[in-house]
Amino acid sequence: EFEPFQETAKRKRKYGIKEKAVELPLKVFAFDLLYLDGRDLTREPYETRRRALEKLVSGHEDTIILAEERVFTNAKELEKFFLEEIEHGLEGIMTKRLDGVYQAGVRNFNWVKLKRVEEGKLEDTIDCVVLGYYTGRGKRTQFGIGGFLVAVYDDKNDTFKTISRVGSGLTDEEWREMKKRVDALKTKEKPKNADVAKEHNPDVWAEPSIVVAIRADEITKSPLHTAGGLALRFPRLMAFRDDKNPEQATTVSEMEKLFRAQKKR
């Protein structure tokens, strides 16, 4: 059974490690071997590396699982397998040439990742409400903001429920503009009409007022977001929606409909 990263990340903790390991057992999927006992295997063909990996993992199947390997001779069989994996909720598959060597940092046809992006990509933007921002790191320390938290509207309970953290799609000027807008609406505590899991608490809270258009690759499940357990994958800012008030943002029920429609594609 495959769980979303947000769920497996709960294993990261200082206390109660053994108890959580029993509750949420994880296993390592091994798919390649680049170095073994002082020997560099990167110049060896994939078939040789795979056989060495199989020998190394043998006897440790309780904690390490070999990634499934299938050899295809035609594109039709490959496509069929790809679609089967997508139906199982996986992002895609990794294809490799049997005689291909490993070249770090090089894009070529020795390794090709096949992902369902176009079929799963959202066709429209999501209108979200900004609940606050996170202070920046690296280059973004100059802006004082490195990401922001967005929510959709729960019209049944008149609350704003989180759907994503956003950290891309902004120009330098837009980062400054976002900080300026949030600072103008800054609050000392979480707004009463905001439903936010503590894992996503921003460094600076804001009254739910700023509406933004967000584009994402797809809608995924996330136990750490409060909008019906849904989240946006690869979200990026498209525009400020000054023409909309917060209650005109995309609703939780609309997100659930989009998620169901996405799965049918």
UniProtKB/TrEMBL annotation:
Residues 244-265 are annotated as: Disordered. Pfam families: DNA_ligase_A_C (PF04679), DNA_ligase_A_M (PF01068). It catalyses: ATP + (deoxyribonucleotide)n-3'-hydroxyl + 5'-phospho-(deoxyribonucleotide)m = (deoxyribonucleotide)n+m + AMP + diphosphate. One of its GO terms (molecular function) is ATP binding. Keywords: Ligase. Belongs to the ATP-dependent DNA ligase family. This is DNA ligase (ATP). It comes from candidate division Kazan bacterium GW2011_GWB1_52_7. The lineage of its organism: Bacteria, Bacteria division Kazan-3B-28.
